[in-house]
Every structure is written in structure tokens, then in C-alpha cells.
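ERR on first pass: missing label on line 2. Operator R.T. fixed the label and resubmitted. Corrected input:
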Amino acid sequence: RKEVEQDPGPFNVPEGATVAFNCTYSNSASQSFFWYRQDCRKEPKLLMSVYSSGNEDGRFTAQLNRASQYISLLIRDSKLSDSATYLCAGGYSSASKIIFGSGTRLSIRP
Amino acid sequence: NAGVTQTPKFQVLKTGQSMTLQCAQDMNHNSMYWYRQDPGMGLRLIYYSASEGTTDKGEVPNGYNVSRLNKREFSLRLESAAPSQTSVYFCATNLVGATNEKLFFGSGTQLSVL
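pass 2 clean. output:
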């Protein structure tokens, strides 16, 4: 079982919809959490770090639930340009060891 | 300022051949990583190095060796390549403990083992 697990999707939603992804982690010692976006097998790029209090960046909101050991990403008013693979990641061992989930594919249709 | 530089970008090997993937960073980051990515598998951690001179196994270390000789460089070696090692390999760096901590990735190496 992977230490970080995601629903692989694909999620296919219309433009303007709200879509949410969850990601579960098994190592309770995980200290840091991230959401990355990856386009067409290019290198992943950081979308958001995830903080205990939750954080928002424009249309994107990330939440952390330590009790249930999951993180979530909410995308509001989705755009065609949001089509990508979204990877969650958790860091531990003083945050040096960073493990990724298998990614969730999102496709936004016009 | 190049960031994270991986070489080569593409490589084709025959089964049993050896090769070294090179990664260099100019960001003065303490931690460096090697991941592999296969279709539907996300990124899987092969090895990581929390600091110069230290290395640790990740999720899928078998068949690989690494070397962190200095702060800038972290190499990944395949001693005897196997078709199962056909993948896209990404090197990454991180300044662990920084307030804006995040992984910076190289552009990847596409490796095919025939």
C-alpha cells in the first residue's frame, strides 16, 4: 500500500464547475503537505503548500485533516487551463523524505 | 541561474548496460531527490539525500545507487539496466525548513531499456 493515496480519476467536469480531490496518507509522522500540478509528463510544479489552518489561493483551497489523515484540494469556477494531473505529497523524516500519491487526472470540458 | 539541471534528457540502453544520470543544482538547497514516473503511478521516490554526504532509500531503491559527493550534485546510477527501469526520471531539490519550502524539479530524463 502506498503511503500517500489518491483517486486516479479521471475527473471530467464542465467549465465553471467546482471539483474536489482528496488524498490520504498513512504515516502519522508526516509534517508537511503539498499539492503539485503536472502537465503532459513535464516536471511537476507546486500548486499549493497545505497548512493546518487551511489555505486559499484564488480559486484553489487546500485543507488538512490530521485526525483523519487526509488533505483536500478544492477548485472553484474551473477553467479549461486547469486540465492537468494533480499530485499530492507528504513530507516526513524532518520533512526531507517527500512521498507522492499516484496523481488525479482532471479534464475540464467546454 | 539554471536551477536544477538533469542530464541526459533522453537515453536508450540495452539490458545489462550501466549508466549514470546526473543532477546539479545552483540554489544552495540541502535536500535532493530522485524520482521515477511510470504511467498511472505518479512519482515514486528512489533515493533522497537530506544533506551533503548522506543518502537514504525511498520507496523503490532496488537496482539503483546514488552518490551525493557535494552539495550541488546528486547522481543516480543503474549498474545493470533492466527493461523494468524504463521510465521518466526526475531530480528535485528542496530547502527543508524554509518558510516557502517546495520541491524544484529538473526537466526529466526519459530512459528506455531494450
